[in-house]
Amino acid sequence: MNKNNINPNDVSPKRRKADDNPYTIFTKGAGTDDPRYYVSFKDIHGVNICMEIQKSLYELLNGFELEDLSYLNRVDRHYERKELSEEELYERAFESSEDIFDAVCKKIISEMLYRAIDELPEKQRRRIIMYYFYCLTYEQIAEIEGCSKIAVKYSIGIALRKIKEKISF
Fold first, then answer.
1. 140 within 8 A of 153, measured Cβ to Cβ
2. What digits encode the pLDDT tens for the residues 32-43?
3. In this model, does residue 128 exceed pLDDT 60?
4. How many folded domains does the chain comprise?
5. CA 133, 139, 141, 143 torsion: positive or negative?
6. CA–CA dist 102, 113 (Å, integer)
7. How far apart are CA 114 and CA 109, in angstroms?
8. Which is deepest, 2, 39, 51, 118, by most CB within 10 Å?
9. Which has the higher per-residue pLDDT, 15 or 110?
């Protein structure tokens, strides 16, 4: 196949590639009855090679590229994008993280809260969970429960008072 007849930039998948990806895949006639699949790369002497490949190999290479892209996206989400000065790096190195006392207090309060919610009557527990954990409005809860908005608001108010009594210090 004459490589001058094929323009990889026009028919290759439009995606970012890993820097160490040595090949480019592309198709010609993708919308026709006779699509052709190609791979191009440089050999060890730096000569551009372009060859037709089977669809199954194209799909395999395409899968590798998609996996690479997924990895690149994961890495991007976890790397910081700005340059830090030495001062900023120094400050970060000595930033105080949450101390053990605060972590233990949060854990204890959280356990007390969940225990207090578990001890509520079924209807109050269900409504408090829908309101605070599922972020539903009084109207939405009333519609689900088949009651009035006032009944839901009253029930949640009583539940909150019971929870506060259980976890007050």
1. no
2. 888 898 888 888
3. yes
4. 2
5. negative
6. 16
7. 9
8. 39
9. 110
